[in-house]
Each structure stands twice: as structure tokens, then as C-alpha cells.
Amino acid sequence: MKAQDLQFTQLLEGSKQFIIPIFQRTYSWEISHCEQLWNDVVRVGGNPDLNSHFIGSAVYIPEQDTSAAISRWLVIDGQQRITTMTLLLLSLMRKLKADDIDDPVSAEQIADYYLRNRYGKGDLSYKLLLTKTDKDTLIALLEGKEPQEPISSRIDENFKFFCEQMATADVRIVYQGIQKLMIVDVRLQQGLDNPQMIFESMNSTGKALTQADLIRNYVLMGLPHELQTRLYTDYWRPMEIEFGAENYNNHFDEFMRFFLVIHMRSYQIRRGDVYHEFKSYSLKHEVEPLLASLRDYASYYCAIAIGKDKDENLAQVFHDIRELRADVCYPFLMEVYADYKLQRLSKQEFIEIVLMVESYVFRRAVCEIPTHSQRQTFATFNRHLKKDRYLESVKAAFLLLPSYRRFPLDDEFERQLKVRNLYQFNRRSYWLRRFENHGRKERVMVQDYTIEHIMPQNENLNTEWQTDLGDDWKRVQAQYLHTLGNLTLTGYNTEYSDRSFREKRDMGGGFRHSPLRLNEGLGSCEIWNENQIEKRASLLAQKAIKVWELPNLPPDFLDAYRNEGKEVSEYTLADHPFLAAGITRELFDELCIEVQKLDECVRMVILKLYIAFKAETNFVDVVPQSKRLRISLNINFQDLDDPRKLSRDVTGIGRWGNGNTEVLFDKKEDLPYIMGLVRQALERQLGDEGSEL
């Protein structure tokens, strides 16, 4: 490796060509990056006291013998700066030529020194050779031609930006500024330097590399050029095309994370760790099968998350999932999509599963059940499925989820839907559209309507409204204003304003004439008051349980799955005969609520109390007593210096010394400590296995 400070213009001088390898990301600097560069050039060029300005680094390695007439160099890092500077120099050349300026430099000198190789033929005549659409657009600009479709929008837009700035600039200051730009020039040697390691360690300025950039370079960089090109063309490029430029930049990192969640069976992979997790995963797989799998799952992700599915029925259910903002379920749906492609389930079964997922996420949101468990639920959901009876096993898995992951039943969902503040619900456009279009073949474009409060929001309701609502009108307005029964859709929100109900009903475009299903019944209603709001809420809530359906299985089928699951590991608090032993319902509910607040490790321990750790000498148990619970630990603590470190006398009763620890729970304040005690004991006893629970 040879590193030195260098004027940027010196990097381009001489007969040479910088090639952007096919595995590198496309040009991606935005206008904001170009503005910063332009401001730096003008600032340093116009200030005689500033001798230089550092703009980053360029790392490159020879593609072939550098003693050739035109040496060719593969750019490892710095392509964004080199490309942007080329666009800036090209705009300067155009300005000099248009205004017939040759001092301090001529257009011909700019071209010969920094843009073209005078004696090069074909592609060798250019000092910078980009990839794909970027290449064609840049060459067209260098040749003074209009770029043809497909156009690289970044190349074209950024070049136009520099031309606009150059139109009113002092070319002397611009050229002086360019001459003062400095880089760290890092030239690698073939066979001696590891370009991938250097690439990873570069702390580049400009636009940061994404996890996907790092992964693509890691997979392809070290391969022979021909193999590199084929794998890129056959596998990676199709992914870029399917995502599209903007979606590739915005979504590909998240896709990579979901791919690893699926294949590594870990829901805890963070966005910033994707590259390092992928490196570990890739060591166990051959390159081409790995890329083929990536390409397949990318198509599933694009169908679900970006709306690229060409099947109209699938596209619609995926649209609903996206509008619900249920991306937590994408790993599971991607796996189901893979099985659908393998014909393990029919299209209709696939659609039913997507609808089940939608219902599960929405019902839990309405019931305000904490969402932190959903990531693990969907990341591991596939483990419970029977691929020979796919749909049935999905239904059973949903219905048998433990309490804190539960699929809310109809009663709970209907009850919460009627009282929930749905106006401030962050998915309100979603639920209104689903309500209105359920069962319709000719779908209503809900985005063309606005949400309407039948009883107005104005705190100073007019006399007619106060009369209709009764003496207790302030309470009625406060209680029901944003709830299901009082909300609808209209295209006449401005016209309705705070008018009386009868005016809203009978005016042109009023409720009586509305074509929307959500407004059915309002045209025949004589008065709008608490009774009517509750009545409408009940009707809509009953419809909602059909829009967002609960999975349905015959009881004997579900019992078979339930018993099968217990043999493996599933055991929930609901299975324990607490209530039969006389413990109060209130204390049991307190325990459930507090357990849900604890971290995943502790919850897993508590929810598998009997089955996972029942053994001859080691077990954790919860025993009901009158009005309290006794948590009993019978675990060997002999490896501890002082077994008493694991316990304290919470309720006045404590025993230790023989491996037994017993604590009583009769107030919720003690629970976090007790759960920590359980976890510590299990981790000590089970080692790594216990820490993963």
C-alpha cells in the first residue's frame, strides 16, 4: 500500500482510467452533497489565505499491468467524490467553451487533463468509467449529447446543478478552488493488500455506505473478474432492478435484516449489525446458492413491502399490510411466500394467512396490547407450522399464542373498538378504508374523502346540538367525540362544519344522499345523541369482527394442537390451576400484567414454568396458596461462592443451603426482584442455554 496527500487534479492527470467495479453501488450523491462541495470550492478558491481543503480519500488497485500506455485502476473507495468532481469539471469545461474563455485554463485543457485520454480508443478514451446506467449517462454528457433513456437521475440532476451554479460564478475562483482540493491517495498492490479489509475500515466522508453496499462488495470483491460479472448480472443486478433506484436505497438494508432474521432464526438482529451478521452467516454457504436465495427472497420482499406483486389479489392484501404499517410480520410472510412458490399452499390459503396476520396486528393495536413481543412472535412463527396442513397449523398457532401474545377474541376486540379513541389512532385512514371497502368489488378511493365527526369537535356546541345531546352534553361530547360511533367519511367536511345533525343529514351531499356504506342508516336517523352513537358503534363493531376475523378451528382440532404443543414446550400461566386453588382473580391478573412488562428472557421462564425445567433435581415451580403465590426454586447452587447472593427474604420466609429457595408473592412490588431471582438461578444452572430463554 502506498498512501500520500495529493491534489485531486493530480489524481486524474496522465494517461489513466479509473473503473468503478461492477459490484460497487451506483452513483448516489444527492444535491445536498453537491451543494456542500460547491460551497467548499468557492470558499477556498476565493480566500488566498486558504491553501487547501481536504475532501476525503481515493483507494484503488490496478486491474492489469500499470506499465501499459493507459493504466487501468479499480476504485475500491472514493467513487462518489471522483464522479462528482468529474461532473464539476465537465460543467466548468462547458462554461469555458460557451464563453470562449482560456484564462486561467481552457476548455481543451480541462478535457485533456482531467476528463479524456487523448489517444484512447472506445471506452479507454474516458478517464472515468462508471457502471450500468451511470456509465451511459456520463458518456453522453462527456460527448456533449443529451442522455437517452434510461437516464441516471443522479448523474443528470447533479450535472445540471453544477451548470446552474457555474452560470453566474467567477470561473477563476472555481478553478482556483478545484486546484486546492486535496485527497488521501491510497494505491494498493495486487496480491499484497486485502482490498475488502481496507474497504471496511475506511471512514469515508460524503454519503455513508449502507449495510447492503458492504454486503455486495464483500460477496463479489474477491472473486475473479469474469465470475464476479456473471454473479452480479445473474443475481445482484436483478435485485437492484426489482427494487428500483429509490427503493433500493431506502429498503435494501431492511430486506437484508429480514433475510437474516429468517435464516438465522434470530429476531434480535439490529440494523447496524446486518453486515457483520451476514459475514458470519455467509461462511457456511457457497456464494452462488447464497446469492440465488437472496434474489428469491428479495422478490418476496418487494412484493410485500414495495407493492411489486403482479397478482392483483395478492397485491391488494399486501397493500393492506403496508398501510397497517405491520412490517414486523414481513419475515414470516416472506417465508410463507417461499412456501407458496414451492406449492406447499394454494394462493387462496396464502391470502387467508395474510388476512389473519392483518387481523392479529390490528386487533392487538386496538386492544392496546404491548407490541414488543410481536417481533419474536413473527420471527419464530414458522417453527410451529405443519407444512402438510399449512393453513390449519397457522390458525392453531395463532389461537394458541400465550396471553401476552394473544390473538384478541371477538368480545375483547369489539369492546375496545367501541371505546377507543380512533380519531387519534395512527392507522385511521387504514381502518376507515377497510371498513368501507369490505366485500366491495368496486372499491371506494377513501383518500378522496376526509374523516368527519358527526357530533362536532367544537367545545362550544350550538343550542340545537346541546338540546339533542341533553343536559349532560359536555360529558357526552368528551366521552364519545373520537370514538367509532361518531366517526365517518365525507367529501363535504367543510360544508358540514358545525351544522346541526339534521342539516348535515338533509343538505345537498348530506348523509341522506351519501353513497358510502359507513353512512348507512344516518339518513333515517332523527336525532344524534348518546343512544344513537352507542347503537351505531355496536353495529360497526359487529361488522369489524367480520372484517378482521378471528381464526376458526373446530375445538377437537385445536385440542389436538394444544396437547401436541405441550409435549414440546408450550405451557402458559392459564394452564396452571391457580384459580382452582383459591387464589383471587385480582392477584392472578396482577401477576399476568407484571410478567408482560418484564424482559423477554424472564417472560419465557415464567411462561414455561413446568415443562421446560421440570426434572428430578432441578425445577422452577409456582404453587398457589391462599391469596398468594409461592415461587419455588429447587436448583443446585453449589457453584456459587455464596448461595445467599441469589435470594433475600422478601416476605419473611426464606430457605437456602440445600439448593432450595422459596419466596412468596403477595404484592406486585416484589415481582421484578423475584423474576430476576428466577432468571439468575436458571442462567447459573443451565449456562448458555439458560441465557437464551
Structure explained in plain terms:
The chain is an alpha/beta fold and 693 residues long. It folds into four domains: 2-204, no CATH class; 225-413, no CATH class; 435-547, no CATH class; 571-691. 50% of the residues lie in helices and 9% in strands. The protein is built from 30 helices and eleven strands. Helix 11 (245-264) crosses helix 15 (330-341) and helix 19 (410-419) packs across helix 25 (530-547). The longest helix has 20 residues, at 79-98.
Structurally, how many domains make up the residues? Answer: 4
> What is the radius of gyration?
33 Å
Straight-line distance between termini = 48 Å
- The portion of residues forming beta strands comes to 5-15%
Estimated structural class: alpha/beta
Number of discrete helical segments: 30
Give the CA-based shape.
Answer: globular
Largest sheet strand order:
1-6-3-4-2-5
- Helix % is 40-55%
Number of strands: 11
Mean pLDDT: 80
Sheet with the most strands, sense and barrel status: 6 strands, mixed
Give start-end ranges of low-pLDDT stretches: 202-207, 565-585, 598-629, 633-668, 681-693
Give a short overview:
With 693 residues, the protein is of the alpha/beta class.
List keywords for this structure.
693 residues, disordered C terminus, three-stranded antiparallel sheet, 4 domains, six-stranded mixed sheet, alpha/beta, 11 strands
Topology diagram in text:
Elements (H helix, E strand, L loop, with lengths): L1 E6 H5 L3 E4 L11 H15 L7 E10 L8 E7 L1 H20 L8 H9 L12 E2 L2 H11 L10 H15 L3 H9 L1 E7 L7 H7 L9 H10 L4 H19 L1 H20 L9 H9 L4 H20 L5 H12 L6 H12 L5 H20 L7 H7 L9 H10 L10 H10 L8 H10 L12 E4 L9 H7 L3 H8 L6 E4 L2 H4 L4 H6 L23 H18 L7 H14 L16 H13 L2 H8 L11 E7 L2 E7 L25 E6 L5 H16 L1 H4 L2
Helix pairs in contact: 2-7, 3-4, 3-6, 9-12, 10-11, 10-13, 11-12, 11-13, 11-15, 13-14, 13-15, 14-16, 16-18, 18-26, 19-25, 21-22, 28-29
